[in-house]
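Human:
Take a look at this sequence-structure pair and walk me through the C-alpha cells.
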Amino acid sequence: MKIVGISGSLRSGSSNTALLRAVAALAPEGVAFLIAPPLDALPHFNPDLDGENPPPPVRDWRALLESADGVFICSPEYAHGIPGVLKNALDWDVSSGKLVNKPVALINASPNHLGAAKAQASLAQILTAMSAKVIESAAVSVPAVYKKLDGEGRLTDPETARALRASMMTLASAITVISEAEESI
C-alpha cells in the first residue's frame, strides 16, 4: 500500500512538513509512505496549458497522485483557508481526476490550541467537490507540534503518536475497503 503525504506549506522549517515526516516514521509494515516534493514547482493553474501535453511538473504531480492508494494532506491555515500553493496543486488535478475515489486524511500542525479548523473545512469541501473520499474519522490536529518532536523530528508525545497511528490505520482501512469495492465491480 502506498500513501503520499502532501504538505500545504513551502516554509523550510514547516511544522506541517515536520508532522508528515513524523507520520511517515509511524507507517506500519506494508505501508510505503512517500512525502511529495514541495508544491512550488507547479506553474500557476492555466487551462490553456492543460491538455495532452501539460508542463512536466504537472505530469509528475499527476503521476504521483495516480500512484498513491491514499493521501495524507497536512496543511496550515492562512487567512481562514488553505495556502494558495495547495489550492493551485489541487486545481491541476481537477481535469485529470487522479484523486477521484481516493481516500484522503486531513491533518494539521498548528502553533496553538485553535488548530486549523477553517482550512480543514475548506480543504474537505474542495476535495469532496473533486470526488475524493475524505475520511473524516482520520482527521487529526496537532497543536504545538514542535514541543512534541525531538531534535531528530521523532515524536516524543505518546498521545500524539497514538492519534497519528490511529489516523494512519483508519486511512489504510478505508483504502482496503474502497479497493475491495472497486475490484468487485
